[in-house]
């Protein structure tokens, strides 16, 4: 097996990268949570992060829009670029970065507002000056939700089903016109039918956006992603875990012909 402290296997980096991570490590206090991650996220593709619990998938995902800044003990080392610009540069506004790199969380979290206002709220605070009715409709159509809610836009978003709430959150992210959408286990709280709708939606959204998804569902990763990053973790002397990137490649290679034995064991169900 490959030594987990060596650099991960990465192939086919010729595609135009929207996001790049170079030797990225994340600490929580003095604990090293993820070590030396290198990743190129290609434009208009779906990239899936898979791996066992505690391997750093969500931690790395949150690095891409500096959500880890909101955790007082977190520290990020290495370099992350978005469209070629260092996201930790002095001129970078984290709020603007998070508008351009939106996020959808594991549990649907609509605002306690109407369906309409859920979409309009973010656009308003970001200074949107266009026709709000058109933006709301466009965003809901983009999230494949318009036909289901067009007659109840003034009703609370909290009254929707779990799957509809998650698509409402995706519509809310779309409304502020991001370039990238990060999704942290967006289907883990959904039933199978709602999960299929969100997966179908991802395939449509990648025509306009770059998508990075964290998922524990390997079948989902194989269905929706163009490329897959497999993370693993080793135990530390302090009794915790340190995550690292084992292998990153086209999804068909990760699941059909992985280069690393750790990857082969994981996707075949031998551990995890």
Automatic annotation (TrEMBL):
Transmembrane segments: none annotated. The keyword Transport applies. One of its GO terms (biological process) is phosphate ion transmembrane transport. Keywords: ATP-binding, Nucleotide-binding, Transport. GO terms for cellular component: membrane. InterPro entries: AAA+_ATPase, ABC_transporter-like_ATP-bd, ABC_transporter-like_CS, P-loop_NTPase, PstB-like. GO terms for molecular function: ATP binding; ATP hydrolysis activity; phosphate transmembrane transporter activity. Residues 19-258 form the ABC transporter domain. Pfam families: ABC_tran (PF00005). SMART domains: AAA. NCBIfam families: 3a0107s01c2 (TIGR00972). This is ABC-type phosphate uptake system ATPase component PstB. It comes from Phormidesmis priestleyi Ana.
């Amino acid at each position: 097996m490959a030594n987990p402290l060596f650099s991960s296997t990465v192939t086919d980096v010729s595609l135009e990268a929207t996001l790049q991570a170079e030797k990225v490590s994340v600490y929580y206090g003095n604990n090293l949570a993820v070590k030396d991650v290198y990743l190129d996220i290609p434009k208009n593709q779906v990239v899936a992060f898979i791996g066992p619990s505690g391997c750093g998938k969500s931690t790395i995902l949150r690095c891409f829009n500096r959500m880890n800044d909101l955790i007082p003990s977190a520290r990020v080392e290495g370099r992350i670029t978005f469209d070629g610009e260092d996201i930790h540069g002095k001129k970078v506004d984290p709020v603007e970065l998070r508008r351009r790199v939106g996020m959808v969380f594991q549990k649907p979290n609509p605002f306690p507002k109407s369906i309409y206002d859920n979409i309009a709220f973010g656009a308003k605070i970001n200074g949107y000056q266009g026709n709000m009715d058109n933006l709301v409709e466009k965003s809901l159509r983009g999230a494949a939700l318009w036909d289901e809610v067009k007659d109840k836009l003034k009703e609370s978003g909290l009254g929707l089903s779990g799957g509809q709430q998650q698509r409402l959150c995706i519509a809310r992210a779309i409304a502020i016109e991001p370039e990238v959408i990060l999704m942290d286990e967006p289907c883990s709280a959904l039933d199978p039918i709602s999960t299929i709708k969100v997966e179908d939606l991802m395939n449509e959204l990648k025509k306009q956006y770059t998508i990075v998804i964290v998922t524990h569902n390997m079948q989902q990763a194989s269905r929706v992603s163009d490329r897959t990053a497999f993370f693993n973790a080793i135990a530390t002397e302090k009794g915790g875990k340190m995550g690292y990137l084992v292998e990153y490649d086209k999804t068909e290679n990760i699941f059909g012909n992985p280069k690393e034995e750790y990857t082969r064991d994981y996707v075949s169900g031998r551990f995890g």
